[in-house]
Give the backbone structure.
Amino acid sequence: MSETETNWMSKLRKAGPCPTCGGEMLTVATNGEGVTIDAVCPTCFHDEHKADAKADAQTWMFVAQRNQARSYLKAYSTYANSAARSYTLDGFETGTDEQRKAKQQALAVGTAIMNGDTVHSFFMGAAGRGKTHLAHGLLLAIMAASGYMKQCIFLDWREYLDRQQDAFDGDAEAKRWARDAKKRIKTADVIVLDDFGSERPTPWTRQQGDDFWRYREDKTVIVTTNCDTQTLAGRYDDRTASRYTKHAKGFGFVFKGADHRKEG
Ligand SMILES: Nc1ncnc2c1ncn2[C@@H]1O[C@H](COP(=O)(O)OP(=O)(O)OP(=O)(O)O)[C@@H](O)[C@H]1O
Ligand SMILES: [Mg+2]
Ligand SMILES: [Zn+2]
């Protein structure tokens, strides 16, 4: 964790021991007029509502920070559908062994990120296994657990490419977004790269993929993909593959189980 983050987090009010892991929980959110305070455990991501809030200056400082982080996520993220915006860790069911395992793996990725490691994590596997759901839930959990100090972006890769492409003959606004979004890829703390490799391969999309990994070589990315390792490697430059595997050791997971979309 960076020094700024550590300093900021030491300013957050402590919220008592975490019932799950025993670590110190932090108050991270007020709802309404300071009546309810949400608390999160930065160790295991357990979160809960605490009813004892007194909204003091510290709380409002926190709320400002949270709003900033949420605006950032909103401004630079791209979603294929709006339902994905509400995928949370809590909403991820763990009724099957596969689901439990998938969630555990995701939490391990989160813990490494919270410990300050650079991580390139790959959530792989067939459609409907919950990769996107877990990746988005984890992103929100990391934002909260960092006291909203981590700047996070969720990129549905195809949607992102479409917006970049549309900007070519788009208006000034579209062009500005495309430029800004690309700039943020260089600087965001954590990016979810959703459905990497799902785009139609053209020299231009390949170039975009290569650029992305040039920028993110030493920065954290959580990737979801339907492609296996070989297919992915065939899609982009050899140099790109070596960049995205640089921090991937121990963070690649194949999601098994049933297609959740078909269960209905
Ligand atoms: N364990 C789960 N608990 C609750 N909902 C789930 C779970 N797994 C999947 N879903 C839901 O099923 C749908 C498909 O999941 P998701 O989009 O995460 O799959 P995916 O693995 O990303 O699929 P694809 O490879 O097609 O992108 C979503 O609506 C998601 O919320
Ligand atoms: Mg998905
Ligand atoms: Zn905990």
